[in-house]
Task: structure prediction
Amino acid sequence: MQHNIFTTMRSLKLSEGCKATQVYAFNPTGGEAGGGGYGGKVGGKFLQHLQDLRANSIRTKSSRNSHPPTNHNQTTRTDVSVESLLPAGLPTVDLIEPKIEPCLKSVDFVESLADVYTKVENSSQLEKSDRFLEQCAVFKGLSDPKLFRNSLRSARQHAVDVHSKVVLASWLKCERREDELIGLSAMDCCGRNLECPRACLMSGYDPDSVKDPCVCLRGQPEEDVLMGDEDYLTFDADEGGGGDDDCDMSFCIGDDEIRCVRYNVASLSRPFRAMLYGEFKESRREKINFTQNGISAEGMRGAMVFSQTKRLGTFDPKIVLELLSLANRFCCDELKSACDAHLASLVCDIESAVILIEYGLEEGANLLVAACLQVFLRELPFSMNNPYVMRLLCGSEGRERLASVGHASFLLYYFLSQIAMEEEMKSNNTVMLLERLGECATEDWQKQLAYHLLGVVMLERKEYKDAQNWFEEAVEAGHVYSSVGVARAKYHRGHKYSAYKMMNSLISDHSPVGWMYQERSLFCTGKEKLMDLNTATELDPTLPFPYMCRAVLLVQENKLESAISELNKIIGFKVSPDCLELRAWISMALEDFEGALRDVRALLTLDPNHMMFYGKKHGDQLVELLRPLVQQCSQADCWMQLYDRWSSVDDIGSLAVVHQMLANGPWKSLLRFRQSLLLLR
Result:
């Protein structure tokens, strides 16, 4: 039961639901904006000052050691002015910008949903999986990950070919985040036919089969499962007439002579039949020299056994690889299928997959390549650390090799690019995977998505010219939201007026949407900026950036309490790590160190790797700097605070207390459970 609870927690991907406006340096003219923090060198000077405060606090405590003991829960706090705490000033509105969402985003979301639903209903059985994948892309931008997973599950249910089943099942497994659980193998079966690694290697359309018991639970040999022929289970080898008395010819390989039945060998393929019963001279010979055909005597004996029994049995993998090569050379389809299935059943880890996939690609063994690819995908993101795997999946040559056996698709690179963007958006591997995604895109929505994602990544890499080009490609393909990326790239390249005109035109040509006014607010000032921010909030109250921007404007007017109130509006119904970070910043300016520490602790619960001050300092470092400036609580006091805040439905305060207790207390399993309940709520 405990496993199921925490698997469910991981699968919710709560940080996804908390994604919001990211704070970036936004200074196209250079200067000190990129130095850190919201405003130039604010972060560095501020942290240095906090370190000085901490040192003063420690010295104050040490100087009081000779005085009578005081309550250990009380801490004397040094009086600090705003000027000395923030010597470089507070954040300015010119230094923040909203994040461009890496997903399909329509002007009319309801219309898009209705359109996709119509496509699903009107599609044939063989097309339903692709239509559900399109629905996945539409749901990807929503804060509820369950909608995306439901569509992904439907796509897997209606998948027809082995390749689609392998990729979709691996994606579903990745969504459950089982890679974070210790002791689980990537190839372990969860008991559901929907994600069973063996069931995925069976071709055919059977949407109801996902409800059946997993094939792993039946105890059926994997080779027989992949071959899909129940007769193999009861076949008697003696029925093949394989005795030496029945042999009427021999194949000579070196000094070895392999006796066999001419009819059985001829039944392997048409080329063998033509050679043994046609007009060739071999048809009249009892002994045929087979030395120059690239197969060993052991391999030929294996072929003779297969010609009699139609099974490979317990052959050594090297022999099976020889038989696979022989089957390709002499067009032995049945033998090739058997070798393909047998070798696919041997793939169990990265090492074996790396070795066998080369044979599969060279010999065109579709099932073997699928089995190897399945291991790579189910091992994500760890398999991305393997240089061979990344060369195969990222490079153009690798895509061509995979395409030659039917394993290069938009679906595959969509999955890979999503994982790569989660791991490291700016990496070269991410760019190459997205380029492969664009090469595989055939439908309009696929091109829109691929080009838009490339634009987002290039913008993150500050390659603004390339970003603008990719965003323009996405707009040309029909993705209106990519116009935001075009305008942003133009602004970063110094064309502010052009960006402003573009957003004006977009607002004039389409029904008003919140993100349009939000984007235009970046390119104007004064009352016009405030009007756009207010309009954006009226049209879409869930956008965090307008609240943050208005809060910063209030800070510039020295209305810090009003700025906190503005941020409370969005935090009250949509918790955002970046809004918590900004509120903590302003709280420190107000010398409300307890409030600042509360927000930083809650922020780290939602995003443990969050970097403060424009990525210069980890949140844990700020916690250590703020701790001496607030009242210290014992573990018992923390439990009382947790009870009070839990009862008053103060989720932010409760998360902060749990974060503090997890750092100090021994009751971690119970605290983790309470933390999970808070995050679910």
Notes: The domain at 233-344 is CATH 3.30.710.10 (Potassium Channel Kv1.1; Chain A). The chain is about 60% helix and 0% strand.
